[in-house]
Every structure is written in C-alpha cells, then in structure tokens.
Structure of ATP synthase subunit a:
Amino acid sequence: MAETTGAANGAEAAHGEGGGLVFHPMDQFIVKPLFGSAGDPVGWLTVTNVTLWIALAVLCVIALMVLGTSGRGIVPGRVQSVAELAYGFVYKMVEDVSGRDGVKYFPYIMTLFMFIVFANFLGLIPMAFTTTSHFAVTVVLALAVFLTVTALGFIKHGTKFLQLFWVSSAPLALRPVLAVIEVISYFVRPVSHSIRLAGNLMAGHAVIKVFAGFAAIAAVSPLSVVAITAMYGLEILVAFIQAYVFTILTCVYLKDALHPHH
C-alpha cells in the first residue's frame, strides 16, 4: 500500500490536474527579457537570456585565447596549454581540408569553433540557456559562412566559380541534370548547416528535461537518475562533436570556394 501511495504521489507531481504534464521540456528554450517581468514583449533591442549567454560565450573565448595566453610562457601553464591545443587542432583541420590557401582564413574559422564550443558547453550548466539550440543563432552563423564563401568564390574566380556546379567528369547528357542537383544542394547548405547544430542540441536537452521530470515518480526515480547521467555524458560529447562538424563543414565549403572544380 505504501509503495502504491508513493507512486501515486509521484505521478501527481509529474501530472497536472487536467492530466497534462507539469514539466514542459521545451520551456527551457523560451527567449525571455533579462530585465522586467515575464511575458514582456521582446524587441530588436531587448536584452534577453540569449544576449546574456552569447556575451558569456564571447567572454570565455576572450579569457582563454587572449588573457590565457598573454604570458606567452615557454613552458605553458594549463590555460595556455588548452589554448594552444585548440589553436593547433583547428589550424590542422583548416590546412588538411581547405589546403594551404585556406590558412589565411583560419582566424575566422577559429573564432567560429571557439564560440560554438563555449556556447554548447555553457548550455550544459544547470539553469543555463543554450544559445546554439536556437535557429535564430545557428542560421545567422550558417548564413555568414554561406555568404562569405560564395562571395569569396566569385571574387577569386569570377564566373569560373560556376564550374562548381558543372560536373565535367560525368557524361555530357547527365551534366545539366547534375548541375540542377548541385545548385539545389548548394543553396540547401545553410539550412542543413544550421539545423544540424541546433537540432542535435535541442533534442538532447529536451530528453534530459523529460528524464528529470520523471525523477519525481518514486517508482522510476533511480532509472531516471541513471538515464539523466548517461544523457548528460552523451551531451558533453555532442557539444564538442557538433562544434567540430560545423567547423569542418565550413572548411569544406571554403575549399569549394577556393578550388571550384570537380
């Protein structure tokens, strides 16, 4: 009887009077004004929770890459070592994927990687806001990459940049069809680039919130705690992998702009 009562009380905690769930997994992604009352309208110049956590991510990048390396010690400390590892990791990625010509654009790609990494990991702090789970943020990042590499392709190669869409190695009869497919896939790039990052982070955080809600039910509480721990560990991995994927795709797109031939 005691076990039945405990389960019933847990169920009541997880469900509202109308039978709906008390916890809402998607509430954590709501954009709210940082100052003022809840429910106040959000305008272009409103300082929100998104603004706060974007600013914190930028400050973390500055703290690591500028303040952390200001000493320039021959024998690096812990912070400088992390900064140097990140620098070498991204530099090698750009060089290997985009070639030597792409190294001059390394600062931009390095900035992208560091911002996304810190934004992803800051979002794992309890009660934090994951800015990179919002399409408004990831679409801007993806569009910046798309417009930059497209402009770079035309600036460096002029109309020869259109060779990117013409598969000269294919049979002549198939080339027009492949050209249409290439054009469509090219303009879909910013969509897939942004959705992949935001979608993975949003899904993982929502699942953790669901498991956390069921932790109120005594009968399944131990399983919920285990599931939350496992998902949190997976999200730590996802936070880095998604930053890596976004960055390496940027390098691939840069390579196409620098060398637009099949």
In short: The CA atoms of residues 12 and 18 lie 11 Å apart. The chain has one domain: 2-258. The helical segments are 2-14, 49-67, 78-98, 106-122, 135-157, 175-214, 221-258. The two ends are 72 Å apart (CA to CA).
